[in-house]
Structure to design on (443 residues):
């Protein structure tokens, strides 16, 4: 029974929040005259002492004490004696755990935000270096059109910005205090829920005591935001894996972020990126697990809810570590811009530019231009040449508008430089986007 019932091995991570919430509660009980001022002082001094002990020596794990709430209270009894028994007046572990956990998730949102911000800063630094470096842009993992590496990296800065927005929103919504809901129905003692809410930095007390002890949607929101962020990280990790492979050769990983093989001496494997990619599974699973825990639960508290913490802690740890690892990789990997530049022209990647040229310079309708360029690509393929090297006579045979001048305009440099629409890949646009992202990051 103890083994299945006890949560202390997991919820010991809530010790700071538990002690903070108990200190707020005891101060309120004293201020309201529910316990004496002397008892409130004794409790507070005892809790402060426990905080010092736990910070120094860690939290003792005794399954007989079940969870962090009982662990703190039992130690308080040893230190403060009789007044300790008055701390639990007008509260229950149900509002206590909901309060502690909200405080923890609130700070987790802040810590993940800081990690996402670090990743953005690293991406921005690399984007600045490579605002004009040309690489192939892909659709279907087929070379599509040339883009700038800076532009590609900025795409992840945008994703991270939305991820941060999700954690910000989750934090704002969860920031209400369950404390004082007691077991589920509220309490007959003249408590001051506004005071405890304020002391703990909550915006206000939760309005419904039944909701306060039952709800875990704040934890679900955290897991949902974490899962979406993890999917973004996984895509970046996947690109690093692909780019680091020899057929691509777009990046070289530093020794610090690659591993060798026990048999093949030449190997440099992108293990960290692969683990970030794989761990997105854990994060998606965390949301799923918590959703299933909550799904069929009648109001109010059932012990199923105890497993919310292991789920959220696991998601937090995986995401925080993934962020740190990816940030380290982004900061230190070497971009092989020569290789990227060479492949940017492959696959007739400037074919769209030729179609655009025919539209702009020769007044050809786009659909017809698309058809003409298709024929040019086919002929170039047959001849085994780049589009720009299609012989003038061959080009003229396809359509009179495909002049040597048109073919000469088909460099990857001209292609990216022409993409000046807002949000486009032209180096000048990328530099503007970097400046805007920098300003947003620093504001
Ligand atoms: N350890 C419990 C949890 O994490 C605390 C709440 C216990 N409440 C109860 N009614 N048994 O959920």
């Amino acid at each position: 029974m103890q083994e299945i019932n006890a949560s202390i091995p997991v919820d010991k991570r809530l010790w700071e929040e538990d002690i903070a919430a108990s200190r707020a509660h005891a101060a309120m009980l004293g201020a309201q005259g529910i316990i004496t001022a002397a008892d409130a002082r004794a409790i507070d001094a005892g809790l402060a002492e426990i905080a010092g002990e736990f910070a120094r020596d860690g939290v003792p794990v005794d399954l007989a004490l079940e969870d962090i709430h009982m662990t703190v209270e039992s130690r308080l009894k040893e230190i403060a004696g009789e007044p300790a028994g008055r701390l639990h007046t007008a509260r229950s572990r149900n509002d206590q755990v909901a309060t502690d956990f909200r405080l923890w998730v609130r700070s987790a949102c802040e810590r993940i935000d800081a990690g996402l911000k670090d990743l953005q800063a690293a991406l921005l630094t690399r984007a600045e270096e490579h605002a004009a470096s040309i690489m192939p842009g892909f659709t279907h993992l087929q070379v599509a059109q040339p883009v700038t590496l800076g532009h590609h990296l900025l795409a992840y800065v945008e994703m991270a910005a939305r991820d941060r927005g999700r954690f910000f929103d989750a934090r704002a919504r969860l920031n209400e205090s369950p404390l004082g809901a007691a077991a589920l129905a509220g309490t007959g003692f003249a408590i001051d829920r506004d005071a405890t809410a304020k002391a703990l930095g909550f915006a206000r007390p939760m309005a419904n005591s039944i909701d306060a002890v039952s709800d875990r949607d704040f934890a679900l929101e955290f897991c949902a935001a974490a899962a979406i962020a993890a999917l973004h990280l996984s895509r970046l990790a996947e690109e690093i894996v692909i780019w680091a492979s020899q057929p691509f050769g777009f990046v070289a990983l530093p020794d610090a972020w690659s591993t060798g093989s026990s048999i093949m001496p030449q190997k440099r494997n992108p293990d960290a990126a692969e683990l970030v990619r794989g761990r997105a599974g854990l994060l998606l699973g965390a949301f799923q697990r918590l959703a299933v825990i909550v799904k069929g639960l009648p109001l109010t508290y059932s012990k199923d809810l105890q497993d919310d913490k292991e789920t959220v802690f696991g998601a937090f740890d995986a995401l925080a570590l993934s962020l740190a690892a990816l940030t380290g990789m982004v900061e230190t990997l070497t971009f092989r811009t020569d290789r990227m530049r060479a492949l940017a022209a492959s696959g007739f990647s400037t074919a769209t530019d030729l179609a655009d040229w025919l539209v702009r310079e020769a007044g050809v309708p786009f659909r017809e231009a698309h058809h003409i360029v298709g024929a040019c690509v086919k002929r170039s393929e047959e001849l085994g040449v780049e589009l720009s090297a299609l012989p003038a006579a061959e080009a003229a045979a396809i359509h009179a508008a495909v002049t040597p001048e048109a073919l000469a305009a088909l460099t990857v440099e001209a292609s990216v430089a022409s993409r000046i629409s807002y949000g486009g890949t032209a180096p000048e646009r990328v530099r503007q986007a970097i400046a805007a992202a920098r300003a947003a990051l620093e504001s």
Summary: The domain at 105-134+148-189+208-342 is CATH 1.20.200.10 (Fumarase C; Chain A, domain 2).
